[in-house]
Design goal:
The complex is a heterodimer of chains A (563) and B (263).
Chain A (H helix, E strand, L loop, with lengths): L7 E11 L7 E11 L3 E5 L6 H8 L11 E2 L2 E3 L4 E4 L12 H12 L6 H11 L16 H13 L5 E5 L7 H14 L4 E5 L12 E5 L5 E5 L1 H7 L1 H7 L6 H11 L10 H18 L14 H10 L4 H8 L8 E10 L2 E6 L2 E3 L4 E5 L6 H8 L5 E7 L2 E2 L6 H5 L2 E4 L12 H8 L6 H14 L15 H12 L6 E5 L7 H16 L3 E5 L3 H6 L3 E6 L2 E5 L4 H15 L5
Parallel strand pairs in A: 3-8, 3-9, 6-7, 7-8, 12-21, 14-19, 14-20, 17-18, 18-19
Antiparallel strand pairs in A: 1-2, 1-4, 1-5, 9-10, 11-12, 11-13, 11-15, 15-16, 20-21
Helix pairs in contact in A: 2-3, 2-4, 3-4, 4-5, 9-10, 9-17, 9-19, 11-19, 14-16, 16-17
Chain B lengths: L10 H4 L2 H16 L4 H12 L9 H25 L5 E5 L2 E4 H27 L2 H11 L4 H31 L5 H33 L19 H21 L12
Antiparallel strand pairs in B: 1-2
Helix pairs in contact in B: 2-5, 3-5, 3-9, 4-5, 6-7, 7-8
Classes of the chains: A alpha/beta (563), B mainly alpha (263).
């Protein structure tokens, strides 16, 4: 692309801006940006460096519509900017799809008789096929909602597309569909993107602007150059890039990962590797394997050949030797209304298991976990830590044995400070000194030291997430159910969260985790449940032996495996 | 969360929403100045009749109307048993039913039922979108208020969904603070996360609306839906006028023959 010859589409010279409020520091101190017509530019940087705000300035939305204290020597904004935002639920002001598109057309004064044809064209270009455009937006999936957002952006006939993490809240399928739709329409238009999940689009970009945490420019170069020359910065800021997990694993093996890891955790992963080695060894495989390596399925695939059973019959067989299961399900179903939303066969969860629950948005993953927690009605057999479902009538009773973390941690945090939050969760039987000691212990265990008097809402996303896990597990439960624990976290936060869960698992907890991230399933979990067509399948991929083996292995490890 | 229920569209849906709103308001003023029990009863009957033409099944209508029926019983019986009057029919402890209080109670009950029936008919046959489009077109309501209300309506189902999540999360935490202080405590536990979420979402929605040129558009708004007056409006206005006049006239005759003025 000969972008240099094209006219300037967007430009900012010596841009300075800050968030409202006296104490807030300057966000950008004399930033210079020039983007030419037709260029595709990705803004990359750590969370909180001001990328989204910059996007609003470059598109002309701030300060015209969103008041932000801002100064610039020169500011050129596009004539017709179109936006797609992150949150599918907060983008629409009308209840029906056609009305939402019409809203944008009305604002532009498009005559009424031309609207239906216009609406149909926008929907088609955005790749959203609706039988009737007059469809309630609430009935669309998240991925469809984002494509509707793309369509309503097209309704303003934009020359510049500004995309503010349009796929952050979508599953893999929805993400791919949205990028497909955007790719079809962005030819000939200027595109500026803020996004964390860049695997699908990095190659389409002409330039990447890399920001440091203070909002200064770190680099401005084509993607291949950035990913070649700026790896250390990307790693340090905890930004996703293609190959992040490979580098992460490699660094892990060498035993250094400066910023991400607290001392001591690297060791745990190595020992997890040792575990897997044991598992592989028992299946007759020699040589060193490590779960952090790039072919993590190799040992387990071989292990399956040696022991060709389904995951759960495998663990059931070993159950006699292993400790009692923390969770037993048999013909269990989570109900929504009167209909079964999700059904399981015979499933067991043992201490040391880390189970990934995957499936499309709305497949019933959350319903399964909510049913286990007795928050939605269920039928069939459930046994939590040896307690049968008859004695688990209420969520409160289930919460004695299992901890549950919601996707949005804010809904779980009910008090005014981190310390109160933990204190609130402890059982009443603990009093005085012992209670305080417990709170302190939880704070250090979940790396919340020094934040005791902070309001939960003032924490970073990663800290909020850790606090919600800490308060959920305050009663010493050994089964942890998590609904997308890495949701909204950047790469560094995700890695830290995973390491933390690994630590818990090593201590003998079992983790059942809903996730959409295939990398996490491959690299961290020991077993995999797939929810499909309302049925939970135990996927025998890394599963068969490691799940059972990890329990036995962790026992033998405690028995004194050399480090 | 689904807060709407499927139903048939009827001629009442086609009545201009602004027109319907004005007429409903006028009916309210009319019953305020109705002190004749007979007239009140007939007006109530006239207000209940259109409910059958809202396109909702009768059982569901009964469900919607149940709080109003309760209101009818409670306000009527309260006034009957504890009101003042000279001709005492029945007395037991504090309860004292007199002829005057009996009729006054009935009058009050029918008045609340009439207002409820008119309001319910309006709500069941008018989409918020239609109402605000019509208010913009017929009554010159500024667009910035109309769309703000519509955006707020859109948030209600999300708010309901979040409320359920919050309730589940508090169920897990298990502690239900009791007493008056506990009530305040629970209110706080629900209100703060919901409000925080709402403020954030309102901010985002506002940005998204601005991004679609809401504030900076061409200046001349066009409308996807146009509302004007149709045959349905004539029928509706005709029915209301005719039934009200009839109620006033027939009310002088019956169904009750005495004590028709409750003042």
């Amino acid at each position: 692309m000969t972008a240099a010859a094209s006219p300037v589409a967007v430009m900012a010279e010596r841009l300075r801006l800050k968030y409202p409020g006296e104490q807030s520091p300057l966000l950008f101190q004399g930033l210079n940006v020039t983007i030419r017509h037709g260029e595709k530019v990705l803004l990359l940087g750590p969370s909180g460096c001001g990328k989204s705000t910059l996007l609003q300035v470059l598109g002309g939305l701030a300060p015209a519509a969103i008041p932000i204290p801002l100064k610039a020597d020169r500011l050129i904004v596009p004539e017709r900017a179109g936006y797609v935002f992150q949150d599918p639920d907060a983008q629409f002001c009308m209840p029906y799809a056609d009305e939402e598109l019409a809203f944008a057309l009305e604002n532009r004064g498009v005559p009424q008789e031309r609207m239906p044809a216009f609406i149909a064209r926008c929907l088609e270009e955005a790749g959203l096929k609706l039988d009737d455009p007059h469809t309630p937006i609430a009935t669309l999936s998240q991925g469809m909602k984002q494509r509707l957002a793309v369509a309503s952006m097209l309704a303003v006939e934009p020359d510049t597309l500004l995309l503010d993490e349009p796929t952050a809240l979508l599953d893999e399928e929805g993400t791919a569909q949205v990028w497909d739709a955007l790719r079809r329409i962005w030819e000939g238009r200027t595109v500026i993107i803020v996004e964390h999940k860049i695997g699908l689009i990095a190659d389409d970009m002409d330039r990447i602007l890399l920001f440091a945490p203070d909002g200064s420019f770190e680099a401005d170069a084509p993607p291949d150059v950035i990913f070649r020359d700026c790896r250390s910065q990307l790693q340090q800021y905890g930004i996703w890039y293609p190959g992040f997990w490979e580098d992460y694993a490699a660094d892990r093996l060498e035993g250094h990962l400066p910023k991400l890891v607290a001392p001591g955790t690297a060791k745990t992963i190595c020992s997890a590797g040792a575990e897997l080695e044991l598992a592989a060894g028992s299946a007759g495989i020699a040589g060193s394997t490590d779960m952090e390596q790039t072919q993590p399925t190799a040992p387990s695939a071989a292990a399956q050949q040696a022991q060709p059973q389904s995951a759960d019959s495998g663990s059931a067989q070993l159950a006699a030797a292993a400790p009692a299961p923390l969770l037993e399900l048999d013909g269990f179903a989570g109900l929504r209304g009167r209909a079964a939303k999700v059904r399981t066969g015979k499933l067991f969860v043992y201490p040391g298991d880390w189970i990934a629950v995957t499936g499309a948005n709305g497949a019933g993953k959350s319903t399964l976990l909510l049913a286990i927690m007795r928050l939605v009605r269920s039928e069939g057999r459930l046994c939590l830590c040896g307690v049968p479902e008859q004695r688990l009538r209420k969520a409160k009773q289930a919460a004695e044995h299992a901890a549950y973390c919601f996707q949005n941690p804010e809904f779980q945090l009910v008090t005014d400070s981190v310390r109160d939050e933990l204190d609130y969760s402890l059982p009443d039987t603990l009093q005085g000194e012992i209670r305080d000691a417990h709170v302190r212990q939880l704070m250090s265990r979940f790396r919340l030291n020094g934040l005791g008097s902070r309001h939960p809402y003032q924490l970073s996303m990663g800290q909020k997430r850790r606090l919600s896990v800490a308060s959920a597990m305050a009663r010493g439960q050994r089964l942890l159910l998590l609904d997308e624990p890495t949701f909204g976290l950047d790469a560094a936060g995700t890695a830290a969260m995973m390491e933390h869960l690994e630590e818990l698992r090593r201590d003998g907890c079992a983790i059942v985790m809903i996730t959409h991230d295939g990398e996490l399933v491959r690299r961290f979990t020991t077993r995999h449940w797939l929810v499909e067509d309302g049925q939970v399948h135990a996927v025998p991929f890394t599963a068969a032996t490691p799940s059972a083996a990890s329990t036995t292995a962790s026992l033998s490890f405690k028995g004194g495996l050399p480090e | 969360m689904n807060l709407t229920f499927p139903h048939r569209q009827t001629w009442l849906h086609r009545v201009n929403p602004a027109h319907k709103l004005m007429v409903s308001a006028l009916l309210f003023v009319l019953v305020l100045f109705t002190h004749n029990l007979n007239v009140m009863i007939l007006l109530t009957a006239a207000a209940l009749l259109p409910l059958l033409f809202t396109g909702h099944p009768p059982l569901r209508l009964l469900l919607y109307a149940s709080p109003f029926l309760l209101l009818f019983v409670s306000s009527a019986s309260g006034m009957m048993m504890f009101g003042t009057g000279d001709t005492v029919w029945f007395r037991y402890g504090l309860i004292r039913i007199s002829e005057e209080s009996f009729y006054r109670g009935l009058h009050l009950g029918f008045r609340s039922l009439q207002v409820a029936a008119v309001g319910l008919t309006f709500a069941l046959t008018t989409r918020p979108v239609a109402l605000f489009y019509s208010l913009m077109q017929q009554l010159r309501l500024p667009a910035r208020y109309a769309y703000s209300f519509l955006a707020a309506f859109n948030m209600l189902p999300l708010l309901a969904g979040e409320f359920l999540i919050l309730r589940q999360s508090l169920q897990i935490r298990g502690r239900r603070p009791r007493g008056l202080k506990g009530y305040y405590e629970r209110l706080r536990m629900y209100a703060i996360p919901l409000l925080a979420q709402c403020i954030r979402r309102a901010h985002r929605t506002a940005a998204a609306m601005e991004a679609k040129r809401f504030g900076s558009g061409s200046g001349v708004r066009t409308y996807y839906y146009r509302y004007s007056f149709t045959g349905a409006d004539v029928w509706y206005a005709g029915y209301i006028v005719l039934s009200s006049v009839l109620a006033w006239q027939l009310g002088q005759i019956g169904p009750f023959t005495s004590a028709i003025d409750v003042r």
